[in-house]
Each structure stands twice: as C-alpha cells, then as structure tokens.
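Pipeline run #58 for the internal structure catalog. This entry was flagged by the ingest filter as a single-chain record with no existing model, so it goes straight to prediction. Upstream metadata was stripped on purpose; only the residue string is passed forward. Reviewer on rotation: M.T. Logging verbosity set to normal.
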Amino acid sequence: MFVSRSYLDIAAVQYYIFYAILAIMYLLFLRRVRKDLLSAFLFVLFNQGFLLLIGGSLSYPKILISLLTFAIYLSGNFRMHSKDLKVSWAFSLFSMLYFMNFYYFNVSLKVAIFQYYKYLIPFMLYLGLRSINIGEKKWDYLAGFVITLIAFQASFSIVKILVMGYLEGVIGSIAVSGGSMAVTLPLTGLIFYWIYKNESIKGRDWFYVAYILLIPIASVKRAIWFIYPIVFMALLLKNASLKNSRLIGAAIILTPLIFYFGLKINPTLNPEGKMWGSFDPGYALDYAFDYSGVSEDKQSGGLAQGRWGSSLALFDNILEHPFSINSVLGFPIVKSGTLDTDEFMAEDFGMMKGTMMAGIGYLFLKHGYVATLLLLYVFIGFAGGIRDRYLRLLLVFLLLWNVLMYSGGIISNPTQAILFILLCEYARVKYDAKAKLLRERNIQNTHFKPHEGKL
C-alpha cells in the first residue's frame, strides 16, 4: 500500500539537502532574469521556502513580499480606472466588516492586522499593477518568467521525490505547507502558457503541459485530475472549428488521456491503492464523493463531514439564522488564522469536529456571509477587465470551483491570490493589445483600399 508522508516527518538534514540542490539548479539553469522590481517580486514569491529555511519564521517571506508589493504600488501613478471603483468599494466594505468582527469579539488589533495581510497585499498588488500601465512586451517577459519558475517547481518536484519521497507539503521552493498550492500552480501555469503562446499549443509545447503535472504528482493531489482536464479541454476548444479539426481531435484524445493517467498514478484513486494501479473511474468517483462527504454513507451519518458535506450543513444553518451575529460577522479567529474553538463548536452546526470544509465554508465562518460575498465579488472583479469573454468566464469558473468546491486558496492564500491576479492582469493587457492591433488593421484597410476600378 502506498503511503505518503507529512512535511512534519521530514528530517532537518533532508530539507538542507533539498534546498541545496535547488540552489545549484538555479545557478546552473536560470538565465536572462532582469534586474527590476517586478522580476525581484516574482523571484521572491516563488522562493519563499528558502526564506523560511534561512529565517525560520513565516514572517520573513511575508515581510519581504509586503515591502515589494508596497514598492510596486508606490511606483504607480495612483490613478484609478473607472472599472476598478466598484472593486475598490467592495473591498472597502469587506475591510469594514472584517475589522468589525475583531472589534465585536474583542480580538486584539495585532491579530486582526496580521490576518488582514492575506487580503490587503493581493489587493494592493492589483491596484499597483493597474496603475503602472505595463506594456504588452514587458508583460510577455513577466509571463515567460512565471512560466519558467513554474517549470522549475516541476523539476524541484523530482528532487523532492528523490530526497523526501511523496508528500503533500513542500511544493518546490514556493511553499512548505499547504498542498492546495500543488493544484493551483499547474492550472495557472497552463493558462499562462496558453496565453503566452497566443492560444496555440503545438510541438514541444505539449511537453510543458505534461511536465508541470509533476507538481501535483509529487504532492499526491487528487483534485487536479478532475479539474485540469476540464480547463485543458476548454482552452483547446476555444478556437476549435470544423476548419481546425486538429484542436477538436487533440481535445477528444488528450482530455480523457490525462484523466486516465491521473486515476492510475494517484494511489487514492484506484482500488489497489498504489501508483500505476488499475483504471476504475467508478471507484475514483465513489472515493471523491465519500472524501467530500456527500456519499450516501457519509450523508446517512449523524454529523456532516468532508468539504462539500460540512459546507452544505453550514449553508443550511445560515439560511435558518440569516441575521444571527455569527452568520453576519462570523466567528473570532486566533493568531494562526484558525477559528477560536472556545467560540465555535462544529457540532452545533451539524458538522463533525475537525472536518474539512470547502473554501466558502471557512470564509463564511471567519467573516460572515456578507463579507465573504463582497470578497468573492472583488476577486471576480480582478478578471472583469479581460476583453475576451471566453477566457474571462473560464477564469471566473476556475475561481468559483476553487472557492465553492475546493480549498478556497485563491482567496485565502496570498501566494495563490497573487498568481491569480498576475494571470488576470496578463490576460487583460494581452487581449487589450490584440484589440488595439485589430482596430489599427481595420483603419488601414478602410483608408488604403486598392483601386477596384477598371483600367
């Protein structure tokens, strides 16, 4: 039976060996990095593990990322686009409700500010990027750098397997704990790459599409094998037509192939419980429903459990008591960001103690449904400036899936939130440039039509 390890089980010497190898790989293979603020920001973002190893505290990467974010924000022209006003107002209202929670429950201001970081820093980065007005060429460089750094994370995953074995934590050099990063990275990497390649994946591009899946493989992630094929297929079919049958054929063949590969390689998704087990989609779906708490067996129990089961129980409670203080403002949280167990009793909400919840459930409990909906509106607004409706809806779908059905890391984890914002901004600038080029060509065709009269 396959057994994965926890990052807490890893010896200190293994961490030192792992990060030493990573540093050597950077020195040997990382090239053509510009010495500017945004490049420094991206490099720090993707190498928080080194900072944790050096400083021994989660505060070190937070402080450095905060300082770089403030520098990006201050380098802008402080002009706010009209499209950003609604997003800014929504974030302001969320912030007011956020601090009302701490004031009402008499939680220290220090804890409030410490936890507010995870929302303020991504929002400030968004405003900074919007006000700097980075051009398409600079964004192509930044996107290429992100794509390269994600490829490094995939290579680092091989090192992790060799040095530490398969474990959920230690996601390359970007994170030590929290396995949901191993799902977000390949998804954002895939979309970044697709936009960077002008919506065309061919030749050696397929290697990158497959290679970044080493990240969730090394972290033994399950959800990626259900969502990655959907996003992959959606990207391929965007420009598919009868005249371009190659894309349709690729989607028909490769999408189920990724699903097939995932079910065989993930030990929890096949009956044998081992890598390269048999392909049994019925077993995998039964496991997924049972794990999420919505199987017939789990729902017949006394208390709800699992991401979906517990969240549904919470929604029922909120619908029954929509104006209670906990429904509106949530529950107090402690410095670690978890709920104060003296105030929150899972059993009172029909949930099993210690059970997992989807991201939306955690947000409701921490901030109340009003602040949560405002925060969700803010993140949807990040994608609102993208001209291409198809891609805009795909990114909103990815956000909603992450929040409603998965961990909610795109909102609650600053690094994942920053990756989402970077992706949305790159898409906005890229498709704005395409629209501008199309207008210029139309003007040229209008003013410089060839003479069609007879000689």
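catalog note: The chain has a mean pLDDT of 90.
catalog note: Residues 94-131+305-439 form one domain.
status: ready for reviewer M.T.
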